[in-house]
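FW: tagging you since you asked about this chain on Friday. Here's the raw sequence from the shared folder, copied in full. Didn't touch anything.
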Amino acid sequence: MKGPLFYAKILLFGEYGIIKDSKGLAIPYNSYKGALKSVSNLTGEAKKSNDNLKRFHHYLEQIDSDVVSFDLQKFKEDIESGMYFDSSIPQGYGVGSSGALVASVYDRYANDKITILENLTRDKLLTLKEIFSLMESFFHGKSSGLDPLNSYLSLPILINSKTNIEPAGIPSQKEGSGAVFLLDSEQVGETEPMVNIFMNKMKNEGFRKMLSEEFVSYTDACIDDFLHGNITSLFKNVKGLSKVVLANFKPMIPSAFHKVWEKGIQTNEYYLKLCGSGGGGYILGFTKDYEKAKESLKDYKLEVVYRF
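HL: got it, structure written out here
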């Protein structure tokens, strides 16, 4: 048994802001993927994944919801016969490892599932997001449902607000010198502690003011620029966003990268921002000259996500 492939995702813009109703833009990232598979003899990572699916199955049994039900008997039988999630998506890296797993389980075991082939109205998208939020809360304690939605649809998704999401057309990539890239911090980040730090910060009036007046306005402007291909304006706004994040989200940036982050802002060779909740995993970079950024960051592993 081998399931369809579900891909990683990258939230280009909107981390933390979408909790407070700013815009967000997520894109599929096809370099990493996962699928449900079965083997007769479970060992190592496959055994760990199978144990995780058992716990997930137990969690889904407890869900009391009008919006979704599952063929839990079939799910249980498949787990017992050696099913696991075979994935190349790094965990704790902010690229949606649990989202791909949730999408694959929904795809295979949901009753009356909303398929990607039907006309995806806004209501259907919101229903999917609600279902995925319920499911993915097993992994993170609290989930927006966005990662699984992105993985399930394999389309760029524009989040206008909590109740307004739509598939987005993004400009096709060009073979230019500019790039969006991933920088590997070589540390695993955990979502839940980072979200807790953010929620504690939200109790501070000054932090809330910064979030709504600076962070959200830079984020929204970056998304508009990116979608409309306004590259000059995009880099100006990404620089602003990078500064705001360095000043206000230090706990989410691994301490070894504070100086690297600042160097980008000072030299304009690249600008860094959080990829997902931070705390480790990948850091997202934007540069007008990828070769120059690569030289400047030669001590680190980089991967190109998108070319300008």
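FW: The chain has a mean pLDDT of 93.
HL: agreed, and The chain has two domains: 6-167, 179-307.
FW: great, closing this out.
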